[in-house]
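Sequence in, structure out.
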Amino acid sequence: MMLQLPPLSLYIHIPWCIQKCPYCDFNSHAVKQGIPEQEYIAHLLADLDLDLPYVQGRTLHSIFIGGGTPSVFSAEGIAAILSGVQSRIVFADDIEITMEANPGTVEAERFAGYVKAGVSRFSIGVQSFQNDKLTRLGRIHQGDEASHAAELATALLTNSPLKSFNLDLMHGLPEQSIDDALSDLQQAIALLPPHLSWYQLTIEPNTAFASKPPVLPDDDILWDIQEQGHALLSAAGYQQYETSAYAKPGFQCRHNLNYWRFGDYLGIGCGAHGKITMPEHGYIVRTVKVKHPKGYMDLSKPYLDSATPVPSDELAFEYFMNRFRLLEACSIDEFTAYTGQPAATVAPILVKAMQLGLVNQPDHRYQITPHGVRYLNDLLQMFL
């Protein structure tokens, strides 16, 4: 069966941070001797040139500039990246361009410059408003700086092309009480962000926290935080549309929606991942770029670390691992179009999932239930 080309997005990775946070397992590197901004931009665009065959005639649906800390780059640098991308790929008329930013004073004051460069949405890494928690997490900003950054972004919503911003907030922090977690959430809601990412801290391998684990709240406290926090967000008009994402109506992150809807995305920059549908070959390929900046910017070496087709017997798991992060219903026809797998491949699994109360079937589509959200890992194991 011929695979259908889904919408196309672009992920751009900027790998540098002022310092590495102890919980972070992303590909990030602490700044030691300055940032080779211009050199790295040239490599990003050269990397993109090699990926252009993957565009396959599509317009670009969204761009996400992540890290690391992209706001260590100048506004002029971000403008050079975006203009370079636009000269190579046609932008959709309503393209969403998100940039991650730290709420420290220097980065926050640059917001207007980033908007002028073409950014239409910020994702601000607040994590907490409580200074003791921020120190424990290795963050370099203070709670009042986070509030100031959100206020600057709010002002830009009314007098610039900025269309939205997200506050990134964690719960389940070391020795965090229910009251502490809800206080953070209440402060975030009071700043009126159109979008809130609210997720639980997890201890990832190969991090400083993994080698010296902090004391985290027990499962009962975590569940109470989740339930009471969800109620707070719902009462404030935020709709949960993804496992850890809440938005005011119309302000869902289009880039992340494309990820979870099994769309395609190019990934450029150190360690960036991509997912590309190849209809003429009948498979989906996963790409990974060279991880370390030194290797990535070595002209004698390729940018591409690996390009691996997804085995056909893993496509159902890959699809639903993404699709069931969203609370919206999905069509079995979309599964078939985007994976090339017949509906019969997953029909018995979905029937069993419905019997277990993990999935329901409104209007002949499949939708994860609240019970399924709580036991998402168990649901996904059924597709292996």
